[in-house]
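Reader question, answered in our methods column.
A reader sent in the components of a multi-part assembly and asked whether the whole thing could be modeled at once rather than chain by chain. We filled in our standard form and ran it. Here is what they sent:
COMPLEX SIZE: two components
ENTRIES:
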Amino acid sequence: MARITFIQAIFDGLIEEMERDPLTFVLGLDVTRGTFGRAAGFFERFGPERILDMPLSEAGFVGAAVGAAMAGTRPICEVQFASFFYCAFDQLCNQAAKLRYMSGGQVRLPITFRTRCGAVGGAAAQHSETVYPQLLSVPGLKLVMPSGPADAKGLLKSAIRDDNPVVVFEHLALGGAREEVPEGEHLVPLGKAAVKREGKDATVIAIGAMVPKAIALAQRLEAEGISLEVIDPRTLIPLDEEAILASVAKTNRVVIADEAHLHGSAASDIGCMIAEKGFDYLDAPIKRATAIDAPVPFSPPLEKAVIPGEAAIERALREILG
Amino acid sequence: MDIGKELVLEMYRKMHRIRNFEQKIKDLTTAGEIPGFAHVSIGEEATAVGVCSALRPTDRITSTHRGHGHLIAKGGDVARMMAEIYGKRTGYCKGKGGSMHIADFSLGILGANGIVGGGIPIATGSALAAKLAKTGEVTACFFGDGAANEGTFHESLNLASIWKLPVIYICENNGFGEFTPTAAVTSVKDIAVRAKGYDIPGYVVDGNDVFEVYRHTSEAAARARAGEGPTLLECKTYRWEGHVVGEGAFISGKYRTEEEVARWKARCPIIALEKAVLESGMLKRDELDRVAQQAREEVEAAVQFARQSPLPEPSEANEDLWI
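And here is the structure of the entire assembly that came back:
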C-alpha cells in the first residue's frame, strides 16, 4: 500500500472508475487544468471528450449533468466550492434530487458531484462554508464526507458507481493529508460508518475534517486516563444509525463534532436521532461542537473563533464527563 | 415542402388531441374533480405539434409547466397522462408528479418541469450526452418567453454554442409570463435576436402555423445532426386561456382585452391547418372530421380510465426515491 495524499487518492479513484466505464466523464470549471491538484497525465489519458472545461455557469453545467445522466451517461460534475452550489440550487435540489421520484421511478440519475468545502484559513464566508446541512432536508441526494485519503478513494468510487445523485464533500483542509491507501478495487460502501478509534468513556461522532481533530484529542486525553471512541459516519445520507447507536450504548456519553453552523447542522440532526432512539443509553446530555451561527470570517483569529477546533470538542466533553 | 398526407393527418390528429385534452382539463379542474394547478395550452397547439412532428422517435424533448401539448405531440399516452393528473396509481408517474411533472423516458420525454427555465440546462445536457455517445439524437427544448429572462437560458445557449450541441431551443412566446405581458419585462421585441449574443442562428416563426414550425424545426434538426450546433426558434403564439385554470378567483382586474383574445382566436392554428389542406385539395372535410371525432373519443376514454383507476396507497409515498 502506498502512502498518498487525499487528492492523489481522489484522482486514483477517479481514473480507475473512468477506465472502468467509458460513459463516465468529468465536467466543471478548469477541470483540464486541475486547480486543486491533478494527477500526472489525467487529462492526457482521457482527452477533451471526457474531461470538459465548463464556463462559469454553475446552473448551466449542473443542469447539463442532470440532462446528460438522464440521457444515459454517468457524469462526474465538479463544483469548485460548495458555496457555488447556491448558484445552481434549482438544478441540484429541484431537478437532480427530485426527478427520479417525481417521475415515479422512471429514470436513473447516476451523477457524482465533487465539491470542496470547509474553512481552510482566510478564504472568508463565500469559500468556507460546509453547505451540506442545506442538503440534508432535500430527499433524493446522497451526501458523502470523507475524512482521510483511503475513505476518499473508496467513497468516491462507490459514489461514481451509484445510480443516484451523490454529492462528495472534500474538506479543503484535508487535501494534503497522507495515509496508506489500498490500490485498485477499494470500495467503501455508502451508509457505513467507521470506528476510527475505540474507547469506552465517551463517543465523539466526528464529520469530515473534525475526525482528525477528534483523534488528536483522544490521543491527548489518553494520558489523563480518558478513553474516547471516535465514530466517523462517512456518509450523512444514508446515515449509519446503527453504528452510532451502538457506540452510544457502549459509552453512554456523546459529543457530535461538525464544522457546520449550529442551527440545522448534521450534528443537530444526528443528536435528535440519538435522543429519539437512544435516550435510554445516555448518562448525560447530548453535546454539539459546531461552528457558531456566524458566517465564516476572513481574519485568522476570527475564523478560529467561529470554526470548532479540538478545544471546542474538549469543552463539550468536559461538560458531560462529570 | 415535403409533407405527405399521412403526416398532415397525424398533425391534425395531435392538435385535436391536445385541444380536447386541455379543454377537458380546464372543465374538470373548474368542476373540482382534478386537484392541483392546471396550466393549459389551448391556442398553442401548432408549436408543439410542428416541432415534434419534425423529430425522430429517438429524439428527446424537455417541457414546461404548460406541457401537456408537448407530451401529446411527442406521442404521450393521453390515458396515462390523464390518470397522472387525477393523482392515480396508473398515471405516468404513479401519482407522484401530477400535471407539471409528467415524463415518459421511453418516448424521449425527459419531463415537464415546474420551474420556469428548469428544463433548459437539462436539454443542453441531454444534447451533450448525444454528442459524447455519438448517438445522433437531437433534443428539442421547449420553454416560454418568461424563461428567456432566466439565467439558465443564457447559460445554456452559451454552453450549447461553444460545444456545438445538437439541441433546438424552442421559445414558445405566448405573450405572457403569468399575468405580465412579455413586452413589459423583456429587453427585446423578438427573443430570437438573443441568439446573436451566442453566435447561433435565431428565427422568428409563426407559432400558429404548424407547417412553418415543422419546416424550421426540420432545418434546425438537420443542422444539429450535421454537427453544426444549436438553433433558437421563437414561435410566436398566444395563450387563449389564463395562466392557470381558476385564476379569476385570485387575480384582480383584467390583464388583457377581449379584443386581443378575439384577434388571436381568429388565428386558430387548427382552423388554419384545415383551411390550408382543404384549399389545396390534399384532404377532404369528412377525412378531417373523422380524425377530430377520434381525438374526442380518445380523450373521453382517457377520462374514464383515470376515473376508474385506483388511487395510490399511502405507503407508496416511500417508493421510487432511490435505485
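What stands out: The longest helix of chain B spans residues 5-30. Chain B has a mean pLDDT of 96.
Send us your own complexes using the same form.
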